[in-house]
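Teaching assistant here, posting this on the class forum so everyone can see the example we discussed in section. The complex has three components, and the goal was to see what a joint structure prediction looks like when all of them are supplied at once.
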Amino acid sequence: MESIYWPTFFFWLFSLISCSFAVGVLLARNIVRMAFYLVLALAATAGLFFLAGADFVGAMQLMIYVGGTLVLLIFGVMLTSQERFIEMKTSSGEWVVALLLGGMLLGILLQAAMAVPAWQGMDRAAAEATKVEKTATPLGMGLLGVRVDQLDEQDESRRKGMSGYLFHFEIVSVHLLVVLVGAAYLARAKRKRGRDELAGTGSNAT
Amino acid sequence: MIHLPLAHLLSEPVGVSHYVMVGAVLFTCGVLCMATKRNALGVLMGIELVLNGANLNFIAFGSHVLRNDANSLGLDGQLISMFVIVLAAAEAAVALAIALNYYNNHDSIDVDRADELLG
Amino acid sequence: MAHFLLELTLFDIHICPWPWLAYAIVGLIHVALILNLVAVSALVFIWLERKISGRIQDRLGPTRVGGKFGWLQTLADGLKLLTKEDLMPAGADGMLFRIAPYISFCASIAAFIAIPFAGGAYPWIVQHLNTGVFFVLAVLGLEVFGVILAGYSSASKWSLFGAMREAAQVVTYEVPLGMCVVVPVLIAGSMDMVVIGDRQAGWFTNWIVFHDPFTFITTCVFFTCAMASVNRAPFDLAEAESELVAGFHTEYSGLRWSFFFMAEYGSMFSVSILASILFFGGWHGPVPITSLLGLGGESGSVGWGLAQALGLANVLFKGVVGVCLMIWVRWTLPRLRIDQVMTTCLKYCTPIAAAMFLGATFWHYNLPDKNFFGLTNLPDAVYEISEGWEISEGWDRASGDEENLGDQIASDQITSDNVGGRR
């Protein structure tokens, strides 16, 4: 038995956590437990990102996804959690169809994942020789439009694609602004109408 | 083509395909969640799972640790997954606002009851 | 610190025949150190809080247990908590109720993974991350999950209200907190906390808090937001005794309750250390004693060890000072209302932080090599110490077109790979 290659060990650990809690999200009926399993699944996915050498994206996943989005989600769960919505059953017929189709989908995807020879792992010596690069600076420069990782790219056709992501970055920024305004508008309009309705019913009642 | 000797399970480095497999499991769970959950927030959680499965693929395709040849996606994979995470956050905010509005108007969070537009 | 332990203790002397065992031992040493740091600091801080609050309110605080100053009081309290019955409400969600305190505690401890306690080319840090600051912020944000789950699973209205308040408060305060953290990152040119700390080497004039007026205000905003994000009074609305009994931990008793407390004190300590590294020089004291005495030298030598230990003492001392400041604020200022808490964040802290970020950007762009409100020059020592790391040199000096800048960064990275590649 050869010695254990630790990144592989941690890959299996994190992927086991991630997959099992993803299945947990699917099978859980209690909405709050679903949210909790989702947190664990996404945190384990962040661990997988770290293992793949994407430490900035991993930290971003922890910060934005797990720290921000999911707190928001749990917030929503709590706001809407009355007794009758905590557990909602799906009919077994729907379950059968869904599991059948999902199993087929999973089968196809897994087969496709295993079918490409180039996607198999490197041999161990090559993997141990691979250095993990720092990604934060190149990512930041890439968002600003300079691809420092592709400066020595010789192929002319590939050089065309290295213009960076400044434009996309701007679009996403504007998009976030629009979403911010939109979400605030939705929340605000709701409260206003609620108050009017309350006032209306109040006057009717008296 | 399936090549997974159990003896080398822990001693050999994992490849892109292992990550893609985990991504596939997350994706399928997410799709099934979207299909079977009746709670609107459960559907939202399914969407998050799907997006995460896709993200895992992008990271895997762009990782030099898993596959160090010229055909690797390189930094683009990480950049795309960053955009996905940001857009997922935006999507969650809007979807949550919609769900809360729906809850306020219908006094229910069951997506099967949202059938008024059927005519 | 990991490679130091590995190379010096286990590999070079060949005590250990199996490398994996060496890794496991080193990992366990780190875990034990961090756990002890959090647990012991919680003991000390709880005692300190009781003493300081006593003095502020013109009384003595604990005096009896353990001799003169009552310094064993917390240990006695801990023993009492251990023997208490572990209660769970009848309607509670058992699994979530049991697991919630541990989630809070784990998140609070995990933040210490990426916090360096001494810098240099071989920093004392559990895991040297390129994105250290970001990681610490992200993990600190996870602590709220334990609180939310505790609040929900307790099946109590007080708990639920406390958890809702906490969720709203933490998510909102992360925005100005993140903006404040960006300022030192911008000035040091890296998210690596070791680089940020070593950027402030030398006299206290090099500390980022004194870099320009904007960073000074940023420090104040950071401290306010940090206090709010760890739920300290005057922002402790999640456990407001006057209206919510005890907020999210109303239904907890015994050891599980004490885990919440340890988590709170642990994250107080970690945000204080974070502030000390980002703004107050970290392991570099106000006076560069190590270089004046000629300590330092090759890694592994006695002088280097002394210098690093001095840095460790500096970090811990600044962290304790930060916590004392929080205690002082708690027992001085009245508590805010929940709407006032949100107003403070959204209407004051966030715009101020954004304006300070813009101001610091302009200042740093126009005076890249100046320190101490633009009065002193950035000493060469900074470049020497952080040699091999991609800090401001390549960024500021690079003038001209994008291609040139890119080349320079690429070459910087190559050097950093060569020098820092051993980790």
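For the discussion questions: Chain C has a mean pLDDT of 79. Residues 19-56 of chain C form the longest helix (38 residues). Think about how each of these relates to the inputs above.
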